[in-house]
Amino acid sequence: xxxxxxxxxxxxxxxxxxxxxxxxxxxxxxxxxxxxxxxxxxxxxxxxxxxxxxxxxxxxxxxxxxxxxxxxxxxxxxxxxxxxxxxxxxxxxxxxxxxxxxxxxxxxxxxxxxxxxxxxxxxxxxxxxxxxxxxxxxxxxxxxxxxxxxxxxxxxxxxxxxxxxxxxxxxxxxxxxxxxxxxxxxxxxxxxxxxxxxxxxxxxxxxxxxxxxxxxxxxxxxxxxxxxxxxxxxxxxxxxxxxxxxxxxxxxxxxxxxxxxxxxxxxxxxxxxxxxxxxxxxxxxxxxxxxxxxxxxxxxxxxxxxxxxxxxxxxxxxxxxxxxxxxxxxxxxxxxxxxxxxxxxxxxxxxxxxxxxxxxxxxxxxxxxxxxxxxxxxxxxxxxxxxxxxxxxxxxxxxxxxxxxxxxxxxxxxxxxxxxx
Length: 421
Fold this sequence. Notes:
The chain is of the alpha/beta class. It contains 14 helices and 13 strands. It has helices spanning 10-16, 31-39, 49-60, 94-105, 123-127, 139-152, 202-207, 212-227, 238-254, 262-270, 277-296, 345-354, 378-384, 392-395, and strands at 41-45, 65-70, 110-115, 131-134, 164-170, 173-179, 305-309, 315-319, 335-339, 364-366, 371-373, 401-405, 412-419. The chain has an eight-stranded mixed sheet with strand order 3-2-1-4-5-6-7-8, with helices on both faces. Strands 9-13-12-10-11 form a five-stranded mixed sheet. Helix 4 links the parallel strand 2 and strand 3. The longest helix is centred in the last third of the chain and has 20 residues, at 277-296. The mean pLDDT is 87.
């Protein structure tokens, strides 16, 4: 692209046509770098609040081959901050509408949308991209793509290493991070920085709910088990979410609790993080800045974590988060967990959902010599169910390693259990 069509990027070209004091030694100013930027195929995961900003920024930064994947459809509540959407777009695919909206303004940019789950794509799909940028609202989805990219790395094939730029926001706080799978700290290494929501006692859900979230959790945990226990709850299925919303709304009316909405139901069930437009814009800009630096080598990219807060004032801080040798995804050692040997296996399984370093919802556990508990198939679940009531000291020895798998993730986790003295 040259001449008049390049005028849109004249300010970008100031960085690409001459080296700077911190430019990468491999940087070649001028046409070769511009061509590499235009040829860089980038995947954006998520076309919501962050994703809209990221797509716009990438298109205005000189990237010309962009793919976007999102399984959601546009809701009227999205319109206050997801600026690529209009009222007439409600009910349509976010990925498809976002792609069409950006390309209508940047006609020299190709954006390929996919309306579906990231789990629907295999490694060959992700292998085609030079950079992957996440604008997700789900920690579970981040963990899945992180594990997938780590598993793709072949040390004999440098092209198999796909830089992951991840952005996240929660209210007036946010972060951007650059992850080089297997080489730097990954999302799983940093999991304990994202503590899970505090658990609500089951008795509160069953008898005296006080908040709209309690009604939604009751519908998810108790009502679903009573009425639809033969069907696996799919938090991405609109029919399942609608069913939970209806039950939660009825329970809220019974206890005179206001505030149960379809959007809140989605947020509670899927653990969706709330978003604010200005925070999205700042974090998306940081993510695209890092993608631009990776694609062009015009400046050193972030090493490796930037945090932002804008509640009382505006504050940013960068630091290098260290890779953990016992990370279950990119490390090679079992993570050590201290447990009470008098606790039952059921207690331990429940704690895995609450521990910041684990956050596993439906774990299956085994040692090298025996199966401790299987979530499925039903025959194995029934066979291992008696172990749930046994003390850990009856099932394992101090210092034993256990393997843990969860249907939400593509990898197995290893934990070394140390008994409290």
